[in-house]
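Box 3.1 A note on notation
Throughout this textbook, protein chains are presented in two layers. The first layer is the amino acid sequence; the second is a token string describing backbone geometry. Keep the layers aligned when reading.
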Amino acid sequence: MRLDGLSCLSLSARDGHAVEAREGAHLAPERIEALLKEWRRALAESNEADAGLFYLGTCHRVELYSFGIPTESLRLAWSRATGADLGRATLVEGSAVLDRLVRVTASLESEVLGETQITGQMRDATEFARKIGVLHGPLDSISQFALRVAKRIRSETKLGEGTISVAHVAVDGLLEVFESLEDKSALVLGAGSMAEQALVRLRKLGLSRITWSNRSPDRLAAHPLAAECEIAPFANRHAEVWRHDIVVAATSAESAILRLEALRAERATKGQGRRGPRVILDLGLPRNVDEKIHGFSQFYVRNVDEFSTRIRENEARRQSWAEASDRIVEEEVREFARSFEVRARGPLVGELYRCVEALRLHELTEKNLEKNSEIDYLSRTINSKMMHLLVRELDALDDVPARQVLEVLLRAWRQAAEWQPRKSRTPENPEAPPPSLAPVPREAKPKRP
């Protein structure tokens, strides 16, 4: 159980992967479940008991985190599932994955520094993988650790104060096109958190005429914000677009829900409706809007990669808070990695204990002293103190030198065990086998006369 078993395949806006590449690698919810179940069967047949993985998909990143699984086999399966070329996906391995996972969960790697949505998305992704049965063991522990650190950062820094999301940045960018939103109307497509955040932000900026539409109308019926909006059938969305100045498309659809041909057909049938520029904010991944709509009849389409200026301004404002967050991450990751690696040394330390105990028993048997309780107690105490001091010194070392020391000692003491006669030469039992490496039960301390 070592951190070098961790890996992450990633396509993120932060690493320079364009929306087209992220869109191609995106997995639909039902495909995620099918793929994770396929991997679950493969994990059951593998020899790696601690192997695990989970998939994270957001508007700015698609990532596959794993432990104990060959990275290339994951890359191949992911490519096969999506048809995308993942040869250029960013690969992170070993302890760097621990740092990355914590920073992503705490929104320190988000395009909008400090946004809160990513933490919930990470929690949902890990819970889903855990439910399917592919997230357990070390990777599960690490994902829960990342969520705990994110919570600490929220409570101890101002990173989350007045936080804004991608939806907030996108809606605020409307003021670059319109002087005011108070006389405008908007159509919001979708019922997820991104659509909801956009709707709330539109109202905060003074826009009161909002039409809301979703493929599943039941999701809107019970929503508290629905009373403040006009609800429109999703099938009428292209007609509704012509009635509004602003459109926010934020659905989980796997293909475009607004198409140029359909808009043209609606205009030919019912006319253009309101005149003037219209802005469509495409917050979906895959993209919700046919890119050919941009420039048609004064339509301006913006997708999630086009808010970089405001995002950079937000990041500069939050940089001082991020520095405090970075210190927390560094402290937490260092301590977690240390404790994780110390636990990983456990089997080696256990084997060392068994070797030392086997040598002790062998020497007592060779000298026909194994029935002398005082000598047995004394030799056991010496071994115990020696091993306690050794382990304490090993704990003070980093993982690599600690393992090197353990491996040297094990080689030496294994060889020492091999030098001993295969059978103990005791007069009472000349055919007895050599002492076992299994742990020996402790005896009570002998009473002194």
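Residues 345-419 form one domain. Residues 308-344 form the longest helix (37 residues).
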